[in-house]
Write a structure and sequence with these properties.
The structure holds 2 protein chains of 2 kinds. Chain A is mostly helical. Chain A has a two-stranded antiparallel sheet. In chain A, strand 1 and strand 2 form a beta hairpin. In chain A, helix 1 packs parallel to helix 10. The longest helix of chain A has 29 residues. The radius of gyration of chain A is 28 Å and the shape is elongated. Chain B is mostly helical. In chain B, helix 16 links the parallel strand 3 and strand 4. The longest helix of chain B is centred in the middle third of the chain and has 19 residues. The two termini of chain B are about 35 Å apart. Classes of the chains: A mainly alpha, B mainly alpha. At the A-B interface, helix 2, strand 1, strand 2, helix 9 and helix 10 of A face helix 1, helix 3, helix 4, helix 6 and helix 7 of B. The structure holds iron/sulfur cluster (2 copies). The site of one iron/sulfur cluster has 13 residues of chain B, from helix 6.
Chain lengths: ~325, ~550
């Protein structure tokens, strides 16, 4: 159900642009108003969500340790997996965020006759996830060329690296290919592996279709239904300098691309895509495992009803005395 | 165990989920796979809500009138108090990396035992009650109404999670299903829905200081009984310091260690070691339990039960605290104690009186793990050891979930073991250290009515033991956890018959050459020492 609903929604979104821009000609709605609204929702939404998380206290220090603690000087502590200082925590987080270290560990359990269970390494999810996120980032950076004048050197650098193989005119970007493959893999995985299909919701398919739509429309307008790059840049710079103009004749493909991007932006703060912000805040990963070294303070710690020694002795005093255990009160 | 199916029957499972969506599959309380509910009398001792007699198989669970409101309030309260809870409700991408990491899923094939789906049982309600999209899109957004069936499902599946945290190791965001299970159990407790095998120990512990309800004189008797056994074995009379004011060290163990075999041998092991060192220490009848079933109940209960340890250290005027071999006890000591009941500023930074080592890693809590202590002694050559006395043992080590994944205690016990026995073999890499598999009976699930589920959950561990048994002839499974020492016995009998379970300090005591001891003929279990077998036959 989730799958078809999501696919259907993305198709509707595309049709909306056909109607809105192609038929009715609401170019400034799709070119100016919607992008502004989407960006606003995105920014406010993210700030709100992250703010809500950061306001929630972290009462206990609960890191998941994946390696040797720091104890004796002669036992090698694993500062990466069981960090005991800020440096270790930072290294752990950086590797997690940039290289998806936890996913790298992934294994697959398989039941054999015997009965036996065997574990095999499986890195596909890690690889696809990494490929997807990195290409996304590079593509995003490449797009800076539309918003900046002069174009920063690193943008040009990425771009020339990305198009290194110079296939076709205009050059085919590697990241475009990679992201399409990765998203397709992530989608197929959801459909083909029964357990993953079982847990998948519309909220899992929708962003995949949306991103697939964004990437496809991007590739299409670059290589097939060519749009006027200069006019696109004019629009982008106008938007960012708050003097929006809608140049004539940019081409429908561009509006589809833009609208899907806007949907993604506006959808972002309300969805699981917020894992982007959440990954930095996870208390099992971003706390040092120095629990016994340093006191952690719980801001809402409150007194509880305990069974005091006095009450204990009152109940058992006679029995304690009978066997010669020392007591406080005779 | 007679009504439990044979291993190959038990494993005739399919990991493929059913056709119907999980929200449409109601829970089935199959005997052997769930724990009996908490008795009213135990809840009353603890002033907990809705004490009553009931059974999970009843249609009517006798929930309080306004139960929905209670759950909603409780949910909200915890969202506000725990960033972990909020985050873990929000950021799961359902990538499924955690799915086949849970021993209960591997052993049962029940999709709701995939950590991600276990958490979704809770998230679905969260979405409905606390998110806009869930309110608008309902089921499409993965949201569902909170009903009595949901409560039943929570009860079944949150008591089919041993809170072992293995799933959290593999999750790209470190989502810890154990945290979610803990919150789920807290909410269930608001309605009076707990399990007796957790709540009876809690009630006992609250009153008598330990899970088993052993009273002070009983505790003293037990330890003295061990001292007699030790005298028979070694010819050495050791004294048992109890509630001794002004001792240097307070020693706290899980009650499993002095209650049943094979924990008792470990307990004797501690006593022999301390005697040999001439350690100035004391046991306490009031703090006669390190294990803390509050961890399986609620954060508040952890604190209520844990409070006695610092209180007793203060009353007795000790300098620091030493803790025995226990898994979840150490999770509490390491991750919660100082925060909840600290600061322990009336104690000193633990320093070994034998080697002078300052335990910098425990400088705030002032509590040291026994294998940290013993490994330090060994490193400094302060013990006379004869590992050949353990030559009849071919040993492998089970990393208990909590010390491994909440503390990072990995090498210390191995160091100790390697110093006291000559034959040590590791189980396969994917099943040890931070990837270790649960015994299947932690978090209050180690009761007999739940035996089928325990054996299913114990399957990955049992399977790895079987592997080293076949490959190296392993016949002893060592561990540093009292629950393991109890629950791994049926797991081994079932999945790797012939392998017995031991604590680490049992082996230490066997190898320990004590001053003035008579010639030992047997080990602590009364088994003839290697090379002395013939004596037995004469
Ligand atoms: S591994 Fe983490 S993000 Fe992936 S499904 Fe499991 S809990 Fe969710
Ligand atoms: S904490 Fe352990 S028992 Fe619970 S879901 Fe995770 S792996 Fe399974």
């Amino acid at each position: 159900m989730g799958l078809w609903f999501s696919l259907f929604t993305v198709v509707i979104l595309v049709l909306l642009v056909f109607m809105g821009v192609g038929v009715v000609g609401l170019n400034s709605l799709f070119g100016i108003v919607i992008p502004y609204v989407a960006l606003l929702v995105f920014l406010v939404g993210i700030v709100y969500r992250v703010g809500k998380w950061t306001r929630a206290p972290v009462p206990f220090r609960i890191p998941t340790t994946c390696g040797q603690q720091k104890s004796h000087p002669w036992i090698k502590a694993n500062n990466l997996e069981s960090p005991y200082n800020v440096l270790g925590v930072m290294a752990r987080m950086v590797l997690e965020v940039l290289l998806f270290r936890s996913l790298f560990r992934n294994t697959r359990a398989e039941l054999r006759d015997g009965p036996r269970v065997v574990y095999g390494g499986t890195k596909w999810l890690w690889l696809a996830g990494l490929a997807f996120h990195w290409s996304f980032l590079l593509i995003l950076l490449r797009h800076l060329r539309f918003f900046t004048e002069p174009i920063p050197f690193f943008v040009n650098l990425f771009e020339s690296m990305d198009g290194l193989f110079e296939i076709g005119v205009p050059t085919l970007y590697m990241t475009d290919i990679i992201i399409l493959l990765a998203v397709t893999y992530l989608f197929l995985r959801r459909v083909v592996i029964p357990q993953i299909r079982y847990i998948s919701l519309a909220a899992d398919y929708f962003p995949l279709f949306l991103i697939l739509g964004v990437a496809l429309s991007g590739v299409l307008m670059r290589h097939f239904y060519k749009v006027d790059i200069f006019k696109v840049k004019e629009l982008a710079i106008g938007l960012f300098s708050f003097h929006p103009v809608v140049p004539e004749g940019i081409g429908l493909a561009f509006y589809i691309h833009l609208f899907l991007v806007c949907t993604l932006l506006a959808y972002f703060p309300f969805s699981k895509l917020m894992h982007m912000g959440g990954v930095f805040l996870s208390p099992t990963r971003n706390l040092a495992n120095n629990n016994r070294m340093r006191r952690h303070v719980n801001p809402w710690n409150y007194p509880v009803k305990v069974h005091t020694y006095e009450a204990y002795e009152d109940e058992f005093r006679e029995k304690m005395k009978a066997v010669g255990l020392p007591v406080e009160k005779e | 165990m007679s009504n439990v199916p044979k291993p190959d029957e038990l494993m005739g499972i399919d990991h493929k989920p059913p056709k119907k969506g999980w929200m449409d599959v109601p829970v089935d309380f199959k005997p052997g796979t769930y724990s009996y509910p908490a008795k009213g009398k135990n809840l009353k001792i603890l002033d907990m809500p809705n004490p009553r007699e009931w059974s999970p198989t009843d249609e009517d669970w006798k929930l309080p009138e306004n139960w929905k409101e209670i759950v909603r309030e409780g949910f909200k309260d915890r969202l506000d108090k725990y960033r972990s809870f909020q985050l873990f409700m929000d950021i799961c991408v359902r990538c499924g990396a955690c799915a086949d990491k849970c021993h209960f899923f591997i052993g049962s094939g029940d999709p709701k035992n995939m950590p991600v789906l276990r958490a979704e049982l809770m998230r679905s309600v969260y979405r409905k009650d606390f998110t806009t999209s869930g309110k608008i899109f309902g089921k499409l957004a993965g949201a569902r109404e909170l009903t009595e069936d949901v409560i039943k499902e929570w009860f079944y599946y949150f008591y089919q999670c041993t809170e072992c945290r293995r799933c959290s190791v593999f999750c790209p965001y470190g989502i810890d299903t154990a945290e979610i299970t803990m919150m789920g159990r807290e909410l269930l407790h608001l309605l009076g829905c707990g399990i007796n095998w957790a709540m009876e120990p809690v009630a006992n512990c609250f009153r008598t200081g330990n899970h088993l309800g052993i009273q002070p004189h009983g505790f003293k008797d037990t330890l003295e009984f061990f001292a007699d056994d030790i005298e028979d074995l070694t010819g050495i009379k050791i004294n048992v310091p109890l509630n001794k004011k002004g001792a240097e060290i307070l020693f706290v163990v899980p009650s499993g260690d002095y209650f049943g075999d094979p924990g008792t041998y470990t307990c004797m092991g501690y006593m022999m070691l301390f005697h040999e060192l001439g350690l100035d220490y004391t046991w306490s009848t009031y703090a006669s339990e390190g294990g803390n079933f509050g961890l399986f109940t609620s954060h508040e209960m952890i604190k209520r039960l844990n409070a006695k340890i610092y209180a007793e250290a203060k009353r007795l005027g000790v300098k620091w605290i030493l803790g025995g071999e226990c898994g979840h006890m150490w999770r509490v000591m390491h991750q919660y104690m100082d925060t909840m009941n600290g600061p322990a500023d009336f104690l000193e930074v633990p320093t070994s009186p034998i080697t002078g080592t300052r335990f910098e890693n425990a400088k705030s809590t002032k509590m040291v793990h026994i294998t940290e202590f013993t490994s330090d002694l060994m490193k400094h050559n302060r013990l006379r050891l004869d590992p050949s006395r353990n030559d009849n043992l071919i040993v492998t080590f089970h990393d208990s979930c909590n010390p491994a994944r909440a503390m990072g205690l990995i090498e210390e016990p191995r160091y100790v073991i390697k110093n006291v026995c000559n034959h040590f073999y590791e189980m396969p890499e994917n099943t040890i250290k931070e990837q270790t598999f649960c015994c299947g009976g932690g978090a209050g699930l180690g009761n007999d009515e739940n035996m089928e589920m325990r054996l299913r959950g114990g399957f990955p561990r049992g399977n790895a033991v079987r592997y080293v048994q076949e490959k190296y002839g392993v016949n002893r499974l060592a561990c540093v956890c009292a629950i393991d020492r109890a629950t791994l016995i049926p797991v081994c009998d079932y999945w790797a018959p012939g392998v017995e379970v031991t604590g680490v300090h049992e082996m230490v005591a066997n190898a320990l050459v004590m001053k003035g001891e008579k010639k030992r003929e047997t080990n602590l279990r009364g088994e003839p020492l290697p090379g002395k077998e013939d004596i037995e036959d004469e």
